[in-house]
Amino acid sequence: MVITYYGAFFFKVQFGDLTLALNPISAQSVFKAPKFGADIALVSLRHPDLNGIEQMAYGGKEPFIISGPGEYEAKGITVKGVLSESLYGGGQAINTIYEVIIEGMRVVTLGALTSGELPAEVRNELGEIDILLVPAYGDGTLDPKDAHRLATSFEPHIIIPMRHDKNSLAIFLKEEGSEVSPIEKLTVKKKDIEGKEGEVVVLSSALS
């Protein structure tokens, strides 16, 4: 599995011949909006920074779109959407946390989650997490300190911060207590993450 970051909340996950887009950026966003063909697109929040599904129809591919809580199966991939809330963009809205099972690994994106206090039923829905994608900027999403606290409380194998700038990332890493050099993409297999405990991985944006 290869994970590439495109800024904001957007990740491309590739495995075999399939491409999964997590919260793709819309052309109406203030962020740069890449365009490529995806097989499946997940949208956590109806906001231009996260719902650019039109950008994922390219090269003959039309993505299967998942938007909202529920359980889904598409192209051999199992996805669970869990209800939460967000204040991102200035108003209260439904934010969907997604758990995706890929090659035996559980990848979870918290989307534009605002509160670091998740109800017990949400935590129970998610269970064990291998790779956790967590916003760490504030401005309607988790601030860096809350992001780190919440992320580590899940005890995932790998933590990847998203939707951050230089300052918020520095605060997040200070909470971690270690320096982390950014990498261009994460290539990982199930056997690679066994034994890791909350390892923070910082991905450079492929658009920077």
Short description:
By secondary structure, the chain is an alpha/beta fold.
Question: What is the topological layout?
Answer:
Blueprint: E1 2-5, E2 11-15, E3 18-22, E4 40-43, E5 64-67, E6 70-74, E7 77-86, E8 93-102, E9 105-109, H1 120-126, E10 131-135, H2 144-153, E11 158-162, H3 166-176, E12 185-187, H4 190-193, E13 199-200
Parallel strand pairs: 3-4, 4-5, 9-10, 10-11, 11-13
Antiparallel strand pairs: 1-2, 1-12, 2-3, 6-7, 7-8, 8-9
Helix pairs in contact: 2-3
Keywords, separated by commas or semicolons:
single chain, 208 residues, alpha/beta, Metallo-beta-lactamase, Chain A, 7-stranded mixed sheet, 6-stranded mixed sheet, 13 strands
Q: Look at the structure and name the CATH superfamily.
A: Ribonuclease Z/Hydroxyacylglutathione hydrolase-like
Q: Share of helix among residues? A: 10-25%
Percent of residues in β-strands:
25-35%
Helix count equals: 4
As a whole number of angstroms, the C-alpha radius of gyration is 15 Å
Q: Can you walk through the features of this model?
A:
The chain is of the alpha/beta class and 208 residues long. The chain has a single domain (2-200), classed as Metallo-beta-lactamase, Chain A (4-Layer Sandwich), CATH 3.60.15. It contains four helices and 13 strands. A seven-stranded mixed sheet has the order 6-7-8-9-10-11-13, covered by helices on one side. It has a six-stranded mixed sheet with strand order 5-4-3-2-1-12, with no helix packed on it. Helix 2 packs across helix 3 (166-176). The protein is globular and about 45 Å long. The model has no long low-confidence stretch (mean pLDDT 96).
